[in-house]
Amino acid sequence: METNKSGEVVLCAASEYEQKYYFNQSFSHIPEDVKDQLHIICVLFTEDIGGIIMFVFDEEGNLQIRTEAKESDFNYDEIGAALEVKEIQRQRRDMLHGLELYYRAVFLHQDLDLEAWQLE
């Protein structure tokens, strides 16, 4: 599995600039409906807000949603991006948490306390 300089792993990303969507094939075994939801979220984000959106796992297995824009992109809505990320996190909480559990179990080989997760 490919990691960046920080030891992080990109799950998926989309760029308004290149009109492209990237999905890390190391995660090809996750359900198709989850892959489809990620694709839709990324593409809609870049169409509405602009810039780039990335779903990234840190070294501990936490899934982060990051956005960025070119310095010359005056159409990028930084405040709208932050609000949209919060909305994605709220609406897709269970899916995002499930992806974290999957990553921790399959890639980090951590023992998971599923009962504690169900109580959250």
Termini separation:
30 Å
> N-to-C SSE series?
EEHEEHHH
Shape: globular
Helix/strand class: alpha+beta
* Model regions low in confidence, pLDDT < 50 over at least 5 residues: none
Rounded to an integer in angstroms, the radius of gyration calculated over CA atoms is 15 Å
Mean pLDDT: 91
The amount of helix comes to 40-55%
Strand order, sheet with most strands: 2-1-3-4
What is the total tally of β strands? 4
Characterise the protein shown here.
With 120 residues, this protein is an alpha+beta fold. The chain has one domain. It is 42% helix and 19% strand. It contains four helices and four strands. Strands 2-1-3-4 form a four-stranded antiparallel β-sheet. A hairpin with a 4-residue loop joins strand 1 and strand 2 (20-23). The radius of gyration is 15 Å and the shape is globular. The mean pLDDT is 91.
Summarize the structure.
With 120 residues, the protein is an alpha+beta fold. It has helices spanning 32-48, 78-91, 93-106, 114-119; strands at residues 9-15, 20-23, 52-57, 63-68.
Please specify the SSE layout and strand pairing.
Elements: E1 9-15, E2 20-23, H1 32-48, E3 52-57, E4 63-68, H2 78-91, H3 93-106, H4 114-119
Antiparallel strand pairs: 1-2, 1-3, 3-4
